[in-house]
Amino acid sequence: MPDLWQDAMDHAVSLARTAGTLVREAVQNDMKEKFPTHSFIGEESVAAGEPCKLSDSPTWIVDPVDGTTNFVHGYPFVAVSIGFAVNKKLEFGVVYSCIEDKMYTARRGKGAFCNGQPLQVSDQKEINQSIIATEFGSDRHVEVVDKIFSSMRNILCLPVHGIRGVGSAAINMCLVASGCVEAYYEMGIHCWDIAAGVVIVEEAGGVLMDVDGGPLDLMSRRVIAANNKMIAERISEQIDACAPLRDDAS
Ligand code: IPD
Fold first, then answer.
1. Engineering a disulfide at 154: which of 37, 91, 163, 238 sits with its beta carbon 3.0 to 4.6 angstroms away?
2. What is the pTM for the complete model shown?
3. pLDDT band at 13, cuts 50/70/90?
4. Does 135 sit in the ligand 1 pocket, CB within 6 Å?
5. How remote is the CA of residue 66 from the centroid of ligand 1, in Å?
6. Which CATH architecture has domain 6-118?
7. Would you list the domain boundaries of the chain?
């Protein structure tokens, strides 16, 4: 039987690559010209063998296309995510949800905004009145998938109002900042998926945590972003944690 959609899918993959390359080159070249002493960590540069080490020097942490699978399938949540750290501390974050045309921005100490409008996390304190965002991730090893399912089952049965996920870590974090969902957690993400969102969530009044309840470690590939510590801790208690290979492992 002929594969009707392979041609369309090949075209989508090539489009995704073209768009990603365009954004990556624009950001990387522009940044190198404008800030020649700065460092760069990005999904494509790391895939090309460049190091993924956060040093004290000003560092751009960039995902040109967060939500690649969405993009390939035309699922309408795709973002450009740009975080900026100095002395290993994130200073600003920009997430552009391209299809929705929503520009999320936050600078440390100066608030978080969407298209210029201030953002504030939800004031909900009850987990059973909360919506939690998460993703299934991209790891298909059965032991990892089992942990993802058992964590999700535990959280669903707390109970919570619902579980959602738009297929982009950066946009999920912006939804926490916007107050639409109380929290987002995931294991298996990368630093470039969440760096910008970290500042946006914090500046909207939210908190970040590791899935084990400790402080967030940007390179650990695990995150909880929540409207408050209470909700973050309730989620952390339910997570069957796994430890993906750290971003800075090699
Ligand atoms: C992915 C998305 C997705 C998340 C994955 C990420 P990518 O980023 O953020 O929502 O579940 O863990 O890797 O690959 O589209 O840049």
1. 238
2. 0.91
3. low
4. yes
5. 6
6. 2-Layer Sandwich (3.30)
7. 6-118, 127-238
